[in-house]
């Protein structure tokens, strides 16, 4: 850092002169780029800005208007302070016109009561400045090295922002050009306070340059992207004019983020990544992972207000079994990315604020934030229609959870929607409204909601274990025969016809089932228990949870 005007006044060589600040005390924190001795009144055109001017005052006018003009000219070129000896021209005090003009520009005006060797002052201060410039060059080299490594590695945004916060000590935010927060590092400050009312505050920041400092807001802003294809802004909250090396950090970080964006063009957008992070933490008990206030602020910064809104979780899953070819990670990844973007567009067309992302690799999760006065069913019907219209070639299942009133309950609605979608995935009918609720999937849906309970798997294992073992050992299809029997409510003839098996052969299969399980299929209680066990077996098989396997 360059020494400030206050630092210069504290030097021993200056203290010997008895310095006294008579005006512009607010400007003592301004950095001094150079010290210049000047006696003539017309010195301003020869300066570049950032200078501390030392003068004896012998050549300065006594006319009030001329003195005011002298200060106006110095302030206009960016001089950071004026030091005047009270020895040769003025002795007791400076003319009031000089003091008033300096106060007007908040330009520090300092008197020295004793004669001072200005050459000694310039040597001392300019030596500090040269040392600061060398340190600045070294720091800049370190910054270039750090961000070159990050750029080559294609570092993720949160890694880049962490380095920015470490190198500057300031909180940093990556936002879209629409002021949505994509990533941030609070640098030890309160994230909820950092993000509170972000859009309104950020919208007022204007620099007019690709990298610039907005003094009114205390923000250093660097545009992210290639010229003509800009997509974001990197914002450092500095509080005061940042040093040059912080500007270099912002510019290099913006370049690293632009490169990452290009390299990740085939993956999720940064917006989807930001939405995914908030959704995952809402699902994972935010009180124990991330403070709920921070998650609410992050969602707000993404234009999705959670507080004071009706929150509804939704899940959208493609019927992969209906698509040509076996589903693979290589094929489902692009499909889900396209589905997420199409869903995000559909929420905007339905005029609903929403967080949208693929969380589990099998479908898209949505958290809708609706006004308490909104017609929920109308919004959901329009959303379902918009999504299906956008992805006509892909058969979809849309499911919604129960509406909740607080962000703390949002995870419950999201989880319920996922369970309903899983339960509805293998049902052929499409509900009239275009989306499934828990009521639509009934017992199957309830079992999906309870699928994490070990007691379900234990029950299914007790009921079906011998039959599953027999099928695995002999290749018989007794479980399928039992499924047909249950699906047709115990009607043997209908079950045999559905199995494309003769009645005699099918009746023999039922007898083998009764023998293996030691039950009577004529007993209604046994039939209900076996049917529920089969549903549990299907639910756990679909979840892919080996720990709950009934085999």
TrEMBL record:
Pfam families: GGDEF_2, HTH_30, PucR
Domain PucR C-terminal helix-turn-helix: 478-536
Name by which UniProt lists this protein: Purine catabolism regulator
Residues in CdaR GGDEF-like domain copies: 294-421
Gene3D superfamilies: PucR C-terminal helix-turn-helix domain (1.10.10.2840)
Domain Purine catabolism PurC-like: residue ranges: 7-129
Similarity comment: Belongs to the CdaR family.
